[in-house]
Amino acid sequence: MRACSTWARAPASSARASPKLLPEAQVLGVELLPASVEHARERHAALAPRLKFETGDAFHLAQPDNTFDLVANRHMVQSVPHVDRILAELVRVTKPGGRVHVLAEDYSMLHMMSGPLDPGRFLAQGTGGILRCAPAPIRASAAAPGR
């Protein structure tokens, strides 16, 4: 199995999916920052040559077409323009029948609604006082006007 990881934390992800878990695997971590690549090489030197790291750009991967059985891209596509170009590049380097794994963060999910279903109101009023056990800043925030 040949795998490639392209994202902001590719070195850490690649090490977790490393040859320790899949003894026959060859794993490549592609990272934009040279310092991160060098750090990963030093930290995971014992897993070389089956675990490799290189500086690269997810928009223009250096690998030929149909190279990897698995390509992973996590926690990156939400923060770059032209995601369609990155996805096309990931598919390009994936073998026919291979897998492309993409995980995008949806930071809009972190915004809390206001009104009767506001989580702060629920904690303050709807739980029978469970908020009394919370640290003072959380209690103050939940009790603030407009909540």
CATH architecture of the largest domain: 3-Layer(aba) Sandwich
Order of helices and strands: EHEHEEHEHH
Q: Globular, elongated, flat, extended or rod-shaped: what is the shape?
A: globular
Please tally the helical runs, counting DSSP H or I stretches of 4 or more residues: 5
Verbal overview:
There is one protein chain. This protein is an alpha/beta fold. It has two domains: 2-107, Vaccinia Virus protein VP39 (Rossmann fold), CATH 3.40.50.150; 112-143, no CATH class. It is built from five helices and five strands. It has helices at 10-16, 34-43, 83-92, 119-126, 136-143; strands at 2-6, 26-31, 51-55, 68-74, 94-103. Strands 3-2-1-4-5 form a five-stranded parallel beta sheet. Helix 4 crosses helix 5 (136-143). The longest helix has 10 residues, at 34-43. The chain starts with a strand and ends with a helix.
Q: What keywords describe this structure?
A:
147 residues, alpha/beta, Rossmann fold, five-stranded parallel β-sheet, 5 strands, globular
Concise account of the structure shown:
It contains five helices and five strands. It has 147 residues and is an alpha/beta fold.
